[in-house]
Design brief:
Elements (H helix, E strand, L loop, with lengths): L1 H25 L14 H6 L1 H8 L9 E2 L17 H4 L20 E2 L5 H7 L6 E5 L4 H12 L3 E6 L2 H14 L10 E5 L5 H14 L5 E4 L15 H21 L10 E5 L21 H10 L6 H22 L5 E6 L3 E2 L9 H5 L6 E2 H4 L1 H8 L10 E3 L2 E4 L4 E4 L6 E2 L4 E2 L5 E2 L3 H19 L3
Parallel strand pairs: 3-4, 3-6, 4-5, 6-7, 7-8, 8-11, 9-10
Antiparallel strand pairs: 1-2, 11-14, 12-13, 15-16
Helix pairs in contact: 5-6, 5-14, 8-9, 9-11, 9-15, 11-15
Length: 450
């Protein structure tokens, strides 16, 4: 009955959309952006049965991480020095990262793998991992999984009281965890204040002689201005993390007992489309990259909340890729999308209409933390430095389970800037290099202690 009702809705929506389209075509055309490559409403709806059938299909595989099972039997952890060849599922050469990563990805993740499973499988002993926004929903799941992997984790939060409460809650939840649980400490930072960022970096550097992973996870949506005169969304999501990364570089590049190349992992978003998610605001067409760092970043009314958020996450991905190119032999840099997550996953029945309209179904925070944990501690992925990971999920209506649309945990192509005509405008290497220098100039005085 659900399927028949859904198909009836498809037909009605398609007919309604066609009628509206014909009426609209009589009026002068208005520039509009579509987030789909095909902007025809009717065609989009006609694809819905395909999506629905995919959603009610059986699960793709068991919900486990499948990594060199022949070499490492179940119950035995994968060490950090494990070679990329042993992690391979048959590919003889790992992919070379690029803006369009098309080489075969040598690793396998079965459908439904989550952050906890990675934490239980991978041995992160000896790794020091710094996580911003660690007292948030996905942040606490990240820290929990890292502790399960026996990593030394530094929770970096804006509110020290909230941070300590989250730390105690995580430690209490791990009392009965099997094996050794890694130690957890805290540090304070306000990413909307460059002076606070500098103090946080100094605090971490004074306590640890090396940092193996910096996970820039914190984020916000706010169009107010910071004490530094920048739009909060852009400063917290991008500029503040860029400064923290630069200030911690000496500690990141210090020799680690694990011998592993250090990593920087940046939380981006599937909404990293750039500002043209403001569909009707044609004034957002910038004339230069400098304009993003000036008028857009210092004017609270220049962008809407969602446009500023999308822009910040788009810039995070581009900046991460460029940084990876500049530190090729020294530092692995990744950006990841946690997907659409919430504390309680939505029941399958509530996702029916959303699925028909191509709206992603929310998943748990533990699943949202998966790409962050994967990029932070999974051994042997350094060769893909610069890559963007997006493990977006969909709902399985028949079994009421979440399964991954990208079950191989493989890197995705870098997103394009959504143009006013609805097409992706891909940034060039020159664009990324120029933006990197613009950000360096913006945060430069604080790097030098001014």
């Amino acid at each position: 009955p659900q399927l028949r009702a859904a198909l009836l809705c498809v037909v009605l929506l398609c007919l309604t959309g066609s009628s509206l389209h014909k009426r609209a075509s009589r009026a002068p055309p208005t520039p509009r952006v579509s987030t789909m490559h095909d902007s025809s409403f009717c065609r989009r709806v006609l694809w819905s049965p395909v999506l629905l059938l995919a959603m009610v299909s059986p699960p793709l595989a068991t919900a486990k991480l499948d990594i060199a099972a022949a070499t490492f039997p179940r119950g035995e952890r994968v060490p950090q020095h494990h070679s990329s060849a042993a992690l391979s599922s048959g590919a003889t050469s790992p992919p070379t990262p690029s803006a369009e990563l098309s080489s075969p990805w040598p690793y396998k993740c079965s459908a439904g793998v989550n952050a906890t499973e990675i934490g239980e499988l991978v041995d992160a002993s000896g790794l020091v991992v710094v996580v911003t926004g660690a007292d948030g929903h996905i942040g606490t799941e990240i820290v929990t999984s890292l502790a399960l992997a026996n990593a030394t984790t530094v929770m970096v939060c804006r509110d020290p009281t909230s941070c300590e409460s989250a730390k105690q809650a995580i430690e209490a939840s791990l009392v009965d965890a099997p094996g050794t649980v890694g130690p957890i400490s805290t540090s304070q930072v306000d990413l909307a204040n460059f002076t606070s960022v500098a103090a946080c970096a100094a605090d971490i550097a004074s306590r640890y002689d090396h940092v193996d992973v910096l996970l820039n996870n914190a984020g916000t949506i706010s169009q107010t201005l910071s004490v530094d005169g920048l739009v909060l969304t852009l400063q917290v999501n991008h500029y503040g993390h860029a400064l923290l990364t630069e200030l911690l570089l000496p500690t990141l590049l210090s020799p680690s007992p694990t011998g592993r190349m250090p990593r920087v992992v940046n939380t981006a978003s599937a909404n990293a489309w750039g500002p043209f998610t403001d569909l009707d605001n044609q004034s957002l067409k910038y004339t230069s990259l400098e304009e993003i760092a000036t008028s857009w970043s210092t004017n609270a009314s220049a962008l809407s909340d969602i446009a500023a958020y999308s822009t910040s996450k788009f810039l995070v991905i581009q900046y991460a890729y460029e940084m990876a190119q500049r530190y090729k032999s020294q530092l692995a840099v990744f950006s990841v999308s946690p997907g659409y997550a919430r504390d309680v996953p939505v029941p399958p029945s509530d996702c029916l209409l959303g699925g028909l309209l191509f709206t992603p179904c929310p998943m748990s925070y533990m699943q949202g933390a998966t790409p962050e944990v994967f990029a932070s501690i999974m051994p042997g992925i350094e060769m893909a430095s610069g890559a963007y990971f997006d493990f977006m999920t969909k709902i399985n209506l028949k079994l009421g389970k979440f399964i991954q649309t990208n079950p191989n945990c493989s890197p995705q192509n870098l997103p394009g800037w959504l143009g006013v005509d609805g097409t992706d405008i891909m940034w060039t290497d020159e664009d990324r290099s120029q933006w990197y220098e613009i950000v360096q100039n913006l945060i430069g005085p604080y790097e030098r202690g001014a």
